[in-house]
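BUG: 3D viewer hangs when loading the predicted structure for this chain

Environment: internal workstation, default settings.
Expected: structure renders.
Actual: progress bar stalls at 90%.

Input used:
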Amino acid sequence: MNGPFSKVGILAGLAVALALPASAGTTTYQIDPRHSSAGFGVTHLMISTVRGEFHGVTGTVVVDDTDISKSSVNVTIDATTVDTREPDRDKHLKSEAFFDVAKYPTITFQSTKVERNADGSLKVTGDLTIRGVTKTAVLTATLPKAPIKDPWACSAPPCPLPQRSTGRTSAWPGIRSSTAGALLSAMM
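C-alpha cells produced before the viewer hung:
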C-alpha cells in the first residue's frame, strides 16, 4: 500500500473518549478543541519512536447507554496542526509527500458501528479519511467507571483554583493498534 497510510500509519488507532452519563438515555458531547489532541507514535529506523500530536480536534460523540450500538463518533482533525516538536519534520509531514495539508487540511473519522467488548471497552468501527482516501478503521476505546464531575474536589467556596469545575465530563481512552499507536485525549 502506498501513500500516507503506509509511510506514516499514525491514525490507524484513532479513538475518542466516550464517557457514559450518570443517567440512562442518549447524551451528545461536543469535543472541546482547547482541551483535546490526537497523539501518535511511529517507529523510526527500527530503533526509536517518533511521537507527535494534532492540536485541532473537534467533533461530536453521541452515547446511548441503554443501547451502545446506537452510539456514534464523528471527529475532525486539523492536519495543519501536526506537531512532532521538530519544525523540519513537521514541514515534511505537511507537504505533498505525506498529508498534503494544502489540498487536504482535515483528517476525519466517522463511526459506522459501536460494540461493547467483554472487558467493558468499546470496539468502534468507522471510516477514517486521510488525503481524501477512506479506509475502514477498527478502534478500541476504554470507558471510565463513572463521569468526573469535579476532578479537583473543589465543590464549595472558597476554591483554591482559579476556576471551579464546569461540570464537564472527560476521559482518556486506551488505544491498541497493530501498525501505530494513537491517542485522542478529549474533553467534552
